[in-house]
Amino acid sequence: MDFRGINTPHSEWSGDGLAIGFFEDAVELSGDLAKLDEALSGILSELIAEAEFKGKEGSSAATRVGSGSAIRKLMIVGLGKAEALKLDGLRRAGAIAAKLAKREKCAHVGLSLPTGDFSPESSAQAIVEGITLALFKDTRFKSETDDKNPDPTQVDLLGLGDEAAAAGIAKAQQVCTGVILARHLVAAPPNAVTAITLAETATAIAQEHGLELEILEQADCEELGMGAFLGVARASDLPPKFIHLTYKPAGTPRRKLAIIGKGLTFDSGGLNLKGPGSGIETMKMDMGGAAATLGAAKAVGQLKPDTEVHFIVAATENMISGRAMRPGDILTASNGKTIEVNNTDAEGRLTLADALVFADKLGLDAIVDLATLTGACVIALGNDVAGLWSTSDAIADQLKQAADQAGEKLWPMPMEDKYFDGLKSPIADMKNTGPRPGGAITAALFLKQFVKDTPWAHLDIAGPVWADKEDSYTVAGATGYGVRTLVNWVAGA
Ligand code: BES
Ligand code: MN
Ligand code: ZN
Question: Which domain holds residue 75?
């Protein structure tokens, strides 16, 4: 799919399908649109009238244009009230237009959206992200595809013909390579994505985009005393990999950050085996944090912000075997803290504990971790919204803003220190699991024990990592959640 910004008026554009966006209560045909309507013998005004189109957010309609015209299909898309337009509104409108154009079998598409007060660069970026991610389809594991309508091959963004918009298009394409990598990693089955292949993916990113790479093998992790991570890895027949990718900007870095992703390539629950109805067959998604981390690394390697970023994944799988950690075992993490494992299914926090200790020692300005950590967070916030915990209001605000721009939903949750009582162990420094109520909060409090010096935030992404159903602007399956937020966070603030 090729994107280009052009300044051709609607009335002079030719191609397969022209999609035009309107704000709510501002569906008027004046100036160039009146000219277009006239050239099409009133088809645009007819379409608006017949569809009772008012420009409401998410609404759309399409019609065929008579032969002999410069265009074959005409499409209209609603953006809602002008004053309520967010950047994500442009992303969604782009997505809706793209799906419509594909349905209408348009190869060469023209898209004209009102962009409100947003700059040409941000507008073009959001629109191209919306289009690219809405048309994403994963056919890697199908021997045949059933897709009768090909994707558009050329998309012209009308009114976005300047240099700034071109930069936005390029940025969107770089960000989307990261989001798509994350989707591919999450959607691939657990026999295809393992700790070994995650390390290979990190190697490819390092080579292609010039990042530094360090992979700690099991023996290296033993030397560093990573007993919590290695306790989880014990039952796997595959070697664990501790991945540490570093992006360094050309000059002096403005800030130094770490992004840590939970990297359980499969979570059986361990000896506290996941039971019927637990969704064990979906637990390939338990490396969604790692996927977002590597996706962000890929994007950051191309966008080249002025911030140093450490991308860290303690990758393994949670399996059962005669060597598995037992419920009741006591593990010692790399900061010396002891953990009574009262539930082997609370394994993500064990792997993250050693990753957090590692990052904390790097002397950075901030650490953010992303983890498909708890079912409790899904109960609290549903499938679309990630939970956000932080020891720093500043970082929480930065992330909230980054996510808002990215169109990824997250919501602040309380770091309720009193609930740590639920993790008290009579024999070790702490247990890994507390009572059921507040399960996502005690998980965050557990992680907090492993960050001493660095401002830190935790995102529980168990809900938004996966979408069960397709809707008008997204696809079903792996969402690539987190990549866009992380990229914005690294670049901004
Ligand atoms: N990977 C799961 C959490 C999860 C649940 C992710 C649903 C995606 C969708 C995590 O390792 C887990 O098993 N958590 C347990 C914790 C419990 C044992 C305290 C849970 O949420 O039930
Ligand atoms: Mn688990
Ligand atoms: Zn898990």
Answer: 2-162
* SS3 state of residue 137: coil
Pocket test for ligand 1, best of 373, 383, 446, 447 (most atoms within 8 A of CB): 373
pLDDT digits (tens, 9 = 90+) for 72-110: 999 999 999 999 999 999 999 999 999 999 999 999 999
The Å distance, Cα 345 to ligand 1 centre, comes to 7
Same domain, 134 and 256: no
434 lines ligand 1 (CB under 6 A): no
The residue type at 6: I
Our count of domains for the chain comes to 2
Q: Is 260 in the pocket of ligand 1 (CB under 6 A)?
A: no
Q: Which amino acid is at 360?
A: D
Return the residue whose CA atom lies nearest to atom 3 of ligand 1. Answer: 374
* Domain boundary, last residue among 134, 162, 190: 162
- Residue 276 neighbours by CB under 8 Å, 6+ apart: none
Do 51 and 193 share a domain, yes or no? no
Q: Is the dihedral of CA 44, 46, 51, 54 positive or negative?
A: positive
Say if 76 falls within a structural domain.
yes
| 482 part of a folded domain | yes
Pocket mutation for ligand 1, best pick of 265, 345, 350, 466 (most atoms within 8 Å of C-beta): 345
pLDDT in tens, 363-393: 999 999 999 999 999 999 999 999 999 999 9
Same domain, 287 and 428: yes
